[in-house]
């Protein structure tokens, strides 16, 4: 079979095209897919390594700040009261009230937020370790003159422990004819308990 030059050239071109398609389909395409997959894997590994590096840097920073954190926690224990010291606190509050000419009525409740049950401070406590946050909630109903109330509040600020006072309420007493300028001060205060 004698083929013309055109036919031979066309067969050679078709054969080369088929070989190129076969090589492209079975070798180049899977290689390109594998390269793209490797690029995605490398990006994922790079992101994970960066995340780990940031965690390590954060951990190093935390270790460096550990002495500062310890000193801050020591400050916390200085501004809280220990369990069982509520009688000392009540005595000190009564002393401040007397010094400032205030008639003071106080109610005290021990609150353990982990158990969510307020208990009266006079109930017998067990010796088990209780987790923070625990606090004593004081409810005050004080009678006296306005200036004495201000002095009383200033004296509370000077106490060695931190008192969280919420909603001060002043009310004028109308029924006392002997002392018409006396007012009533109502407020709640929280003192946190440190179980260390």
Strand order of the largest sheet: 2-1-3-5-4
CATH 2nd-level architecture of the largest domain: 2-Layer Sandwich
Give the termini distance in whole angstroms: 105 Å
Main CATH class of the largest domain = Alpha Beta
SS strand fraction? 15-25%
Helical percentage: 40-55%
Integer count of domains:
2
Order of H and E elements: HHEEEHEE
Summed up, the helix count is 3
Which descriptor suits the 3D outline?
rod-shaped
The CATH fourth-level homologous superfamily of the largest domain: Ribosomal protein S6/Translation elongation factor EF1B
Cα Rg? 40 Å
Count of extended strands: 5
Describe the protein.
By secondary structure, this protein is of the alpha+beta class. It has 2 domains: 1-77; 86-193, Ribosomal protein S6/Translation elongation factor EF1B (Alpha-Beta Plaits, 2-Layer Sandwich), CATH 3.30.70. 51% of the residues lie in helices and 22% in strands. It is built from 3 helices and 5 strands. It has helices spanning 5-78, 86-99, 146-157; strands at 103-112, 119-120, 134-144, 163-172, 183-193. It has a 5-stranded antiparallel sheet. A hairpin with a 6-residue loop joins strand 1 (103-112) and strand 2 (119-120). The longest helix has 74 residues, at 5-78. It is rod-shaped. The N and C termini lie far apart (105 Å). The relative contact order is 0.11.
């Amino acid at each position: 079979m004698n083929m013309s030059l055109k036919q031979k050239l066309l067969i050679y071109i078709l054969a080369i095209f088929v070989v190129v398609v076969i090589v492209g389909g079975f070798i180049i395409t899977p290689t390109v897919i594998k390269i793209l997959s490797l690029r995605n894997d490398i990006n994922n590994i790079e992101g994970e390594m960066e995340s780990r590096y940031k965690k390590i840097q954060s951990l190093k920073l935390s270790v460096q700040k550990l002495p500062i954190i310890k000193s801050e926690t020591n400050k916390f224990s200085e501004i809280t009261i220990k369990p069982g010291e509520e009688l000392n606190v009540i005595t000190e509050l009564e002393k401040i009230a007397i010094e400032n000419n205030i008639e003071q009525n106080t109610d005290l409740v021990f609150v353990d937020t982990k158990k969510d049950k307020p208990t009266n401070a006079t109930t017998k406590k067990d010796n088990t370790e209780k987790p923070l946050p625990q606090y004593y909630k004081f409810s005050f109903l004080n009678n006296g003159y306005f200036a004495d109330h201000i002095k009383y509040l200033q004296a509370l600020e000077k106490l060695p422990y931190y008192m969280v006072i919420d909603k001060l309420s002043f009310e004028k007493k109308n029924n006392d004819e002997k002392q018409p300028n006396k007012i009533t001060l109502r407020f709640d205060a929280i003192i946190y308990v440190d179980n260390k």
